[in-house]
């Protein structure tokens, strides 16, 4: 039994989600190999080789692999699949894009967003926006899995010394092409990996207020900034900050929800946080039912006060 | 060009489901059902493509029990021209649905298949990608903008760090993200008209597809409950609690 982890990387370094996925892969039993498919991604492959617990890194290089297009990455994974019993992807936008494509080509069911490995063929995963946990057993010979990163500890990024094997890239599918991207630049911790998250909702009223009120608190705490769907839809914050069932799933040490009512879909994305603080002026807001500490106050006065007190 | 839009009947997104006491599943008896929210966005996008003259016909498809007809009527009230129900009482998992849709893609030869990015019941986020793989089509998932021109679709996708634009050759599979559009409300006259639109029923056997589940659900549990929290009186108390009790700052 050997597990293959598809690394998430930016061609220069390995992204954090890969480390959690390696931990999940190790729990499936057997050796863990990591695939780094990209373009000029030697540095990322070298970084993957240092992850504790990784036995081998497979490095595939091709210009058409540079942007992680599903058609090309899936073909690369399929070329290697015969040697593996488990194929695991982090449950990120990139992993979710490719994993089902690989599973369908192998004619196996895919197991999404696992939070626990009970046995080599049995996994736990949340359903209905996290309102229920299903224990599922795969009846297929090969398991294709996406891993909810907040469900597993990160493997140590240093300490391993795996061999890097270079394989030839599979050809370009020619059916899709990367046109461009708009990646939001910020020097804050990444939302899904942050220890502290300050999140804002519709109550902030405008994009200016969102920035003006939330940013100083996040700066003070060294926190990442998140947002509810309502705040994102209203244009107060960019899409990639959305926390919830269909946005990012986070589990920081401290989650501060400011002016967020706490709809089921939002709670699905943050209720595994260690400590939840809610600041809301509505005493009936559902967010108070999951908050460890609730402050019933107007956030426009409470947050500046909080910034001062820290 | 034809556009095929698969839609799913799910528990309404406002319902807080309960796990059955015997742990066999969640209790969905007598619970309000509606169209999966991402699928409404998919139907809306297809209808807009038709209104722009890009699409000639919009076909809604649903797989499942007989009551899925209601979901298909809703799709037709939004503007789909006709509907196909693949009727079965079996539990359908994403791979099975993708195979059923592949059979329909072979038959109908659509230029574009638009699906929701995930269903809010199983939260799988697989069917679109699986269909694309089986039909050997390119995919553009989590779309927030779709432009069709010259045999290609240029799609802006919501990815982890921001947005990414890809170009795919048609025919292709697109899955919708929340911000692709705002679905219209269906009007009473359109609901009445939708009742007269054609709805064909087929079975998985007609399509030659084996729908046996590949994942066996052993048990469905309640998620761990959070212990009751406390309300604090003011900011000073909050800071004190976070520093000394929770020790998180």
Automatic annotation (TrEMBL), chain A:
PROSITE patterns: ETF_ALPHA
Keyword Transport: yes
Residues annotated as binding FAD: 202, 228-229, 242-246, 259-266, 280
Names of the cofactor(s): FAD
Keywords: Electron transport, FAD, Flavoprotein, Transport
CDD domains per record: ETF_alpha
UniProt xrefs under InterPro entries: DHS-like_NAD/FAD-binding_dom, ETF_a/b_N, ETF_a/FixB, ETF_alpha_N, ETF_asu_C, ETF_asu_C_CS, Rossmann-like_a/b/a_fold
GO biological process: fatty acid beta-oxidation using acyl-CoA dehydrogenase
Cofactor comment text: Binds 1 FAD per dimer.
Domain of life: Bacteria
UniProt subunit comment: Heterodimer of an alpha and a beta subunit.
Membership in a protein family: Belongs to the ETF alpha-subunit/FixB family.
Role summary: The electron transfer flavoprotein serves as a specific electron acceptor for other dehydrogenases. It transfers the electrons to the main respiratory chain via ETF-ubiquinone oxidoreductase (ETF dehydrogenase).
Protein name per Swiss-Prot or TrEMBL: Electron transfer flavoprotein subunit alpha
Natural source organism: Ramlibacter tataouinensis
């Amino acid at each position: 039994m050997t597990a293959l982890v598809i690394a998430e990387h930016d061609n220069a370094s390995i992204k954090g989600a890969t480390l959690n996925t390696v931990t999940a892969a190790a729990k499936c039993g057997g050796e863990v190999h990591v695939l780094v498919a990209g373009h000029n991604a030697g540095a990322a492959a070298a970084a993957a080789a240092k992850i504790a617990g990784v036995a081998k890194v497979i490095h595939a290089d091709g210009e058409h692999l540079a942007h992680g297009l599903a058609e090309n990455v899936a073909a690369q994974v399929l070329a290697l699949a015969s040697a593996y019993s488990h194929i695991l992807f982090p449950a990120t936008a990139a992993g979710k894009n490719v994993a089902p494509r690989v599973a369908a080509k192998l004619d196996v069911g895919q197991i999404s967003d696992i939070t626990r490995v009970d046995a080599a063929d049995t996994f736990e995963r949340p359903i209905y926006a996290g309102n229920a946990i299903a224990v599922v057993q795969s009846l297929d010979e090969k398991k294709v899995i996406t891993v909810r990163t907040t469900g597993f500890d990160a493997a140590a990024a240093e300490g391993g010394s795996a061999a890097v094997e270079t394989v030839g890239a599979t050809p370009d599918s020619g059916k899709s092409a990367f046109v461009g991207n708009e990646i939001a630049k910020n020097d804050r911790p990444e939302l899904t990996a942050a220890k502290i998250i300050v999140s804002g909702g519709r109550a902030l009223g405008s994009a200016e207020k969102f920035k003006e009120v939330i940013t100083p608190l996040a700066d003070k705490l060294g926190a990442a900034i998140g947002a509810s769907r309502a705040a994102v839809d209203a244009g107060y914050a960019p899409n990639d900050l959305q926390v919830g069932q269909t946005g990012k799933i986070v589990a920081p040490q401290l989650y501060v929800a400011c002016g967020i009512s706490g709809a089921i879909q939002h709670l699905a994305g943050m209720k595994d946080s260690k400590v939840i603080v809610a600041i809301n002026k509505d005493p009936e807001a559902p967010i108070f039912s999951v908050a460890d500490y609730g402050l019933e106050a107007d956030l426009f006065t409470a947050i500046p006060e909080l910034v001062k007190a820290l | 060009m034809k556009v095929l839009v698969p839609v799913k009947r799910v528990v309404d997104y406002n319902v807080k489901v309960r796990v059955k006491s015997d742990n066999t599943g969640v209790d969905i008896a007598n619970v309000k059902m509606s169209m999966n929210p991402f699928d409404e966005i998919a139907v809306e996008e297809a209808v807009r493509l038709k209104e722009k003259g890009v699409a000639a016909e919009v076909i809604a498809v649903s797989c499942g029990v007989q009551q899925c007809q209601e979901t298909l009527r809703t799709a037709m009230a939004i503007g789909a021209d006709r509907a196909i129900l693949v009727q079965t009482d079996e539990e359908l998992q994403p791979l099975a649905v993708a195979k059923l849709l592949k059979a329909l893609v072979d038959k109908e030869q659509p230029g574009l298949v638009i699906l929701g990015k995930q269903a809010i019941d199983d939260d799988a986020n697989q069917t679109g990608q699986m269909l694309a793989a089986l039909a050997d089509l390119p995919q553009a998932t989590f779309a927030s903008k779709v432009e069709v021109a010259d045999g290609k679709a240029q799609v802006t996708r919501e990815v982890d760090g921001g947005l990414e634009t890809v170009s795919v050759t048609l025919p292709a599979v697109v899955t919708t993200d929340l911000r692709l559009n705002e679905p219209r409300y269906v009007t009473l006259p359109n609901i009445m008209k939708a009742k007269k639109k054609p709805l064909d029923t087929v079975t998985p056997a007609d399509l030659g597809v084996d729908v046996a589940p590949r994942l066996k659900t052993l048990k469905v549990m309640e998620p761990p409950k959070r212990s009751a929290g406390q309300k604090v009186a003011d900011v000073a108390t909050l800071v004190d609690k976070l520093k000394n009790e929770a020790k998180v700052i």
